[in-house]
Structure to design on (687 residues):
C-alpha cells in the first residue's frame, strides 16, 4: 500500500502514531502495525522518521524520543504531539451519519451504546460535527400489520440462534409465501433492512426484505444453516444474476427510464429522445411480465420473443375483459365505450388469448 | 510519496505546536530543516505546505505578536489542534467499529478510516473496537454509486453553490440547474440533494442518479447560507411522498391472484357474476393517484378488472393498449 500513500497521508499516520503509543504507554510492534494497516517494516520506518525529527532554532533539539527495542514501542518524549489531531469535518460526518443510520435500524440491541457514542463524538468533534446534520439517511421501517415487532423478532432470533417461520410477500410473483428460515445475519443496505438466511423451502441462501415480511414466528428450533450456506459478499451487490437467468431486453421511453434507476441492469444504452435500451437478467420472467404490463407504451420487451408474445397475449386478454363489461359512470365524449378485440389491435390476425380467459375472442 | 516532504511537514507541525508566539516565515525556515535557500523557492514551498496542513485539518493560525510587527506569523494552538479527551465504554467502542464499516467502498470510506485512526490514537480500547469491526451477525452498508455524490458532499460541507445538468423524470432532455445545496439525504437507497434553485427561485430536490455530467462549483466556499431549521430529510420526504389514499376503487380480481391488491383492501367478497360463473372476487380498495394505481392494476393483466371509477378504468385500458401498440 505504501507506494500509493502520499506525503500528507503518511503525515496523518505519523501524527496518530505518537499518541497511539503514548496512550498505551507501551505497545507491541506487530499489534501497532496491524492497527495502522501497515507492515512492521513500514512501521519501523515511521518510527525512525519520528525519532529523527529535529528543530534547529532557536535552540537545536529533537522533540520526539522513542524506542522499539525487543518489539515493544515506548515513547519517552512526545512534546506537543501526545494527542491526536481533531476530527476533520469529513471524518466526524462519516462516523456520525453512519451511527445515526444504525441507531434507526430496528431490532438492534445496542441502541443505548449508539446514542451515548453519538453524544460523545458530537462533543469531541465540536464544530466539525455540525455539517453531519446536513446528511440524512432514512432507514425503511417495516410497515403493515404487526410488523412493528418483526425487526425485533429477527434480532431476537439471531441472538438466540433460532429458526423462524416467515410469511413473506414476493412482489414479482404477487404472492404470499410460507417458509422456514435459519437466520444468518441482518443486512442493512442503502437504508433497507434485510434478513439473510438459509431458506429451507428453496434450500439456498435468500434475502428477505423486512418490510415484506407479513408475519414472523420465532420457532422453538435451533437455527441450522448448513455448512454450504455462504454469506453474500455485499461488495458484489445484493442481487447478482446467475447463469441460469433469462436475459431480457427492454426498450423504454423517457417516462419508463425509472426502470433503469430501480432495477440492476446489465447494460443501459441511451437512445434518441431520452429513450433507453436496457438488458436485465432475471430468474423470474413473471416479474418482467408484470413490469411490461404496467409500463404500457413506455416499455417494450424486445427479447426473448416468447416473453414478448406472452405479454401481448396477457394485455389482449385483459382488454377482452373490459370489452365485456358494461360501462360505468360517464365518459368524455369521443372515448370508446367499449373496447373490442379488433379495436385493441386493429389487425386481421386473431389474438392468441391464453386460457384461462373468461371470454376469449369471438 | 516523498520522505523528505513528510519529514518537513512533520517538523513544521511540531515547530508550530511548540510555540506560543507567532513565528514568522523566516523563523520557521531557520527552525525546520528541509526548506531550500532561494527566497522564491522557499516561499512557494512554504505556501504549499500551509495548504497541505490546512487540508489535513491542522488549525494553522495567522497573526502578529505585536501590533507593530510587519510580517504575519504562524502558530498552531494546542487547544484547537488536539482531539478533546474521549473515553469510550466497551459497548461504545464496539458500536464504533461497526459504524466504521458502513461506508466500505463508498465515498466517505477514507474519512471513516481516518476518524478511526485518530480515535485509536486517543486510546480507544482496541479489543472492543475490533469486536465491533468483526461482528458477523449484521452488515450495515451505505453505497454512493452516484458520481455526483462526491462533489455535492464537498459543496454542502464547504457551503458552495453548484451547477449541474439534471434530467427530471420523464423528460427527454436534461436541464441546467444552479443550486445552493443545503444537504443530501438518502431515501429508499437513493441519494437526493435539496437546496435553493437559483433559476427557479424556489426550494428544489434533485435525485443524484438523474444528474448527468460533472457537478461544478459556481461560487466561493462559505457563500451558501442554510436557513435555520432546515431539515433535509423532511424536504426529501415531502418531495417524494405519496398523497393520501382518498379515493375508492372497485375491482374484479380472479380468485387466488392479486395478493398485493387484496393486501390493503377495504373489503373482499366473492363476485356472484353471471349464473354458473365462479372464481372472481370483488375487491374494494383505496388509492391516491390514478396513474400509479393504474400501473399497479395493469400489472395483474387479465386477473384484475377495474369496475369503478371510470378514470382509473380508462387509465388501465390505456396501459394495456399501449402494450399492444
Amino acid at each position: 500500500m505504501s507506494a500509493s500513500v502520499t506525503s500528507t497521508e503518511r503525515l496523518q499516520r505519523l501524527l496518530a502514531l505518537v499518541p497511539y503509543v503514548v496512550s498505551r504507554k507501551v505497545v507491541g510492534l506487530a499489534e501497532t502495525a496491524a492497527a495502522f494497516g501497515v507492515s512492521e517494516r513500514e512501521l519501523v520506518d515511521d518510527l525512525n522518521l519520528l525519532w529523527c525529527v529535529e528543530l534547529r532554532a532557536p535552540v537545536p533539539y529533537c522533540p520526539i524520543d522513542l524506542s522499539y527495542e525487543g518489539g515493544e514501542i515506548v515513547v519517552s518524549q512526545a512534546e506537543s504531539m501526545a494527542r491526536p489531531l481533531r476530527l476533520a469535518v469529513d471524518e466526524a460526518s462519516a462516523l456520525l451519519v453512519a451511527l445515526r443510520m444504525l441507531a434507526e435500524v430496528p431490532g438492534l440491541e445496542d441502541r443505548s451504546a449508539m446514542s451515548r457514542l453519538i453524544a460523545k463524538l458530537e462533543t469531541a468533534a465540536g464544530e466539525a460535527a455540525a455539517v453531519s446534520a446536513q446528511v440524512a439517511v432514512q432507514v425503511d421501517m417495516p410497515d403493515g400489520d404487526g410488523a412493528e415487532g418483526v425487526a425485533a423478532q429477527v434480532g431476537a432470533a439471531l441472538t438466540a440462534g433460532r429458526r423462524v417461520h416467515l410469511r413473506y410477500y414476493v412482489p414479482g410473483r404477487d404472492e404470499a409465501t410460507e417458509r422456514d428460515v435459519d437466520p444468518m445475519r441482518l443486512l442493512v443496505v442503502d437504508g433497507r433492512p434485510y434478513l439473510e438466511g438459509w431458506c429451507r423451502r428453496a434450500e439456498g441462501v435468500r434475502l428477505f426484505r423486512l418490510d415484506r415480511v407479513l408475519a414472523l414466528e420465532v420457532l422453538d428450533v435451533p437455527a441450522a444453516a448448513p455448512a454450504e450456506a455462504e454469506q453474500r459478499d455485499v461488495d458484489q451487490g445484493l442481487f447478482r444474476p446467475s447463469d441460469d437467468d433469462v436475459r431480457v431486453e427492454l426498450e423504454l421511453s423517457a417516462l419508463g427510464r425509472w426502470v433503469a434507476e430501480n432495477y440492476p441492469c446489465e447494460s443501459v444504452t441511451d437512445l434518441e429522445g431520452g429513450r433507453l435500451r436496457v438488458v436485465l437478467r432475471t430468474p423470474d420472467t413473471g416479474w418482467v411480465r408484470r413490469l411490461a404490463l404496467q409500463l404500457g407504451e413506455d416499455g417494450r420487451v424486445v427479447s426473448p420473443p416468447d416473453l414478448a408474445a406472452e405479454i401481448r397475449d396477457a394485455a389482449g386478454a385483459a382488454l377482452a375483459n373490459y370489452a365485456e363489461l358494461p360501462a360505468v359512470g360517464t365518459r368524455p365524449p369521443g372515448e370508446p365505450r367499449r373496447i373490442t378485440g379488433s379495436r385493441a389491435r386493429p389487425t386481421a390476425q386473431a389474438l392468441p388469448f391464453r386460457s384461462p380467459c373468461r371470454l376469449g375472442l369471438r | 510519496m516523498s520522505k523528505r516532504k513528510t519529514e518537513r511537514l512533520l517538523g513544521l507541525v511540531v515547530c508550530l505546536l511548540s510555540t506560543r508566539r507567532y513565528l514568522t516565515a523566516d523563523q520557521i525556515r531557520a527552525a525546520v530543516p528541509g526548506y531550500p535557500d532561494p527566497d522564491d523557492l522557499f516561499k512557494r514551498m512554504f505556501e504549499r505546505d500551509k495548504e497541505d496542513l490546512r487540508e489535513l485539518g491542522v488549525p494553522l493560525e495567522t497573526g502578529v505578536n505585536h501590533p507593530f510587527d510587519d510580517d504575519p506569523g504562524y502558530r498552531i494552538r494546542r487547544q484547537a489542534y488536539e482531539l478533546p479527551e474521549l473515553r469510550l465504554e466497551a459497548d461504545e467502542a464496539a458500536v464504533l467499529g461497526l459504524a466504521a464499516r458502513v461506508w466500505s467502498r463508498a465515498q466517505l470510506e477514507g474519512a471513516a478510516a481516518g476518524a478511526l485512526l485518530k480515535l485509536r490514537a486517543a486510546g480507544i480500547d482496541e479489543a472492543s473496537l475490533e469486536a465491533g469491526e468483526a461482528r458477523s451477525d449484521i452488515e450495515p452498508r451505505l453505497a454512493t454509486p452516484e458520481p455526483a455524490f462526491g462533489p455535492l458532499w464537498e459543496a454542502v460541507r464547504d457551503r458552495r453553490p453548484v451547477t449541474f445538468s439534471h434530467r427530471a423524470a420523464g423528460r427527454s432532455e436534461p436541464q441546467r440547474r444552479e443550486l445552493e445545496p443545503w444537504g443530501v439525504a438518502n431515501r429508499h437507497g437513493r441519494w437526493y440533494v435539496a437546496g435553493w434553485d437559483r433559476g427557479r427561485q424556489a426550494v428544489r430536490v434533485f435525485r443524484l442518479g438523474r444528474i448527468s455530467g460533472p457537478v461544478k462549483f459556481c461560487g466561493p466556499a462559505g457563500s451558501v447560507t442554510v436557513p435555520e431549521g432546515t431539515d433535509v430529510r423532511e424536504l426529501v420526504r415531502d418531495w417524494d411522498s405519496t398523497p393520501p389514499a382518498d379515493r375508492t376503487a372497485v375491482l374484479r380480481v380472479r380468485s387466488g391472484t392479486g395478493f398485493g391488491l387484496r393486501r390493503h383492501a377495504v373489503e373482499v367478497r366473492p363476485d356472484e357474476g353471471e349464473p354458473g360463473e365462479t372464481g372472481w372476487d370483488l375487491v374494494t380498495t383505496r388509492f391516491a393517484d390514478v396513474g400509479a394505481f393504474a400501473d399497479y392494476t395493469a400489472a395483474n393483466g387479465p386477473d384484475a378488472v377495474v369496475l369503478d371509477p371510470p378514470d382509473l378504468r380508462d387509465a388501465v385500458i390505456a396501459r394495456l393498449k399501449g402494450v399492444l401498440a
